[in-house]
Write a structure and sequence with these properties.
The protein is an alpha+beta fold. Helix content is about 15%, strand content about 30%. The protein has 4 helices and 9 strands, in the order ββαββββαββαβα. The mean pLDDT is about 95.
């Protein structure tokens, strides 16, 4: 977008190589186009506007042609057995199952690895689905590391008043 500088950085604000995932940071080329702080919240301002860049909290990757691709929210990204997993991609595949209305993928603590992958699904009215059926469906569609350890079927997902899934409650 004209008038804005974009970078994809690691957790030390160093630019990552093309094709790697990192956090999208943004700054305006023109003064006073973007906010520079949270009103009466200096701690949040320091986290969000580090090193004169707005830290979006979104994981992105960039290709060799300069195109940017959303991967996930940083806080929703899952690290499992040495692999980075996008909850967004897992949810997209789970939602392709004919019995699933909506889902959420989250990281849960593991006794032996970095994270375990948990999927919480809401079914369409009148449908049924066993956890192993969903895992079998996913084995045909995604890499093995993206098949969830835990599958939970619930009547509804917890949401904010604006309809955003409250993933922190599912962890």
């Amino acid at each position: 977008m004209a008038g804005f500088d974009l970078r994809i950085v690691d957790d030390q604000d160093r630019e990552v190589p093309v094709g790697h995932v990192g956090e999208l940071v943004v700054r305006s080329a023109e003064p006073w186009i973007m906010a520079t702080e949270y009103h009466r919240n200096p701690e949040a301002s320091l986290r969000l506007f580090r090193n004169l860049w707005l830290h979006t909290g979104d994981a992105f990757r960039r290709d060799a042609h300069g195109n940017y691709y959303f991967v996930d929210r940083i806080k929703d990204y899952i690290r499992r057995r040495g692999e980075n997993i996008s909850s967004f991609e897992v949810e997209r595949e789970v939602n392709m199952h004919p019995a699933v209305l909506e889902s959420a993928a989250v990281a849960v603590r593991s006794a032996s690895t970095e994270d375990d992958l948990k999927v919480v699904a809401v079914l369409k009215p009148g449908m049924s689905l066993e956890p192993e059926e969903l895992r079998a469906f996913l084995r045909e569609r995604v890499p093995r590391f993206m098949v969830p350890d835990v599958v939970l079927v619930v009547p509804e997902l917890p949401k904010t008043p604006t309809g955003k899934i409250q993933k922190h409650l599912l962890r």
